[in-house]
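Predict the structure of Exopolyphosphatase / guanosine-5'-triphosphate,3'-diphosphate pyrophosphatase.
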Amino acid sequence: MNTAPHIDNSYFAAVDLGSNSFHLLVARFDNGFLEKVDREKDMVQLAQGLQEDGNLSQDARERALACLSRFSERLRDIPAAQVRVVGTKTLRDADAAGDFLMQAEEALGHPIAIISGYEEARLVYSGLSHSVINDNNLRLVIDIGGASTEFIIGCDHSPELLESLDFGCVAITREFLSDGITRKNLHTAYIAICERIEYIRAAYIQHGWSMVYGTSGTMRAIAELTQPQDGGAVINSSSLNQLITDMENDGGISKGDFSKQRRAVLPAGIIILKAIFDELHIETLHVADATLKEGLIFDTVGRLGEDDIRNRAIDKLQQQYRVDTQHATRVSHLALHLWRQIDGPVLPGASRTKLLSWAAELHEIGLGISHSGYHHHGHYVLQFSDIAGFGRYEQHLLAELVGCHRKKIIGKLDKQDPRVFNAMMPLLTCLRIAIILHRGRDGIDSTVDIELDNNLIKLTFSPSWLDEQPLTKAGLTQEARYLNAVGFNLQFGPMTAP
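Done. Here is the predicted structure for Exopolyphosphatase / guanosine-5'-triphosphate,3'-diphosphate pyrophosphatase.
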């Protein structure tokens, strides 16, 4: 289990901007244990406001921003590095999320990372695995959200299969149950969900598991309805079937102390769970209280300590694509040496030093595909792979650095938002120069200093070193032309005597 590094403030916070509900969790981390001290939930139902054109409705935006403004008060006294905020399925799908995200970040006071379905599943599993007994047995974890449902099989703290499928209680309500809760509508929804589960069914059944856990508010609400038969901690297949019969007869949910919003989407959650039970041959599901929010906090603790899952993900990619790790490490050390001498605009929601280090470690990842245009291959791999621990924005920035580490820059990075371009160029400059200087794939026996003054870059080397490296000198001359094309002036030469 993670142990927190030495910190002055032991409080951490996680905010989950889900498709159905927004959640806030504040917890105290002490000696490897998480003590929940405060939590808030608001059924914003963002997915309900996702329009056919991909835009979020004005009502959904207003509900979301009002909720985030309330959450911001609770986050004021917690260090920014100990607060994580993520957006899931609906924000992944919203075409016009960019302007909304800027407003949302301003309302909340913290950057928001949009995460992939794979990353969402990983965090759900992390939260669950830190809250139950780890007995070296395989477990299946299911999380029904507003617009997606995650399926994870893992052992102890290690997930082995992760999938996020495009259905959730809000989405299914909109798609199949907007005309009412009838036997016909429920059956149509059930068949459609079963078809989507078929995508993962064979692989999951073949992998197997010993116990099934359900997370999320939908699971807890269903457990509340089946409590007279099952006790509230589990959901049995027989009770679920009876619940569906009652729902068909009553035309909806007639029992339970639920909000209007929860009652409206709960029938979809029930029919989703019925399809999952039938497709995966589940008889009993254990309801857990921990989910993505707890996973976010454990992940944050790891980032502040020595257990950053992103570093392990980088190592895995190096192994998968057979990267020359010794060369990558040399490039990384020099790039970071240069970066420490200069500075530039910040990148909200991303560590510039870590981004540069990871880009250096992976700059040759595309060679595992083809030498020709390998920087383009590297960009594609990093842009579209599921990489544990990374939000979409952070992963995009990493892909851009790798994709622009050689050849022309113009027409690629310069098409980014000007603020992103200005913040990325100092990092990219350090990376490109480190790669040029290590073209011989060995160490260099020269001091290398760099200065950055607006768009003027000055490189200085040990006396006479450049004259003894004509190929490197030619590479720097060409690099000056590449940088000049995007508005930067590179000058280089020997150090002057003091």
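The mean pLDDT is 93.
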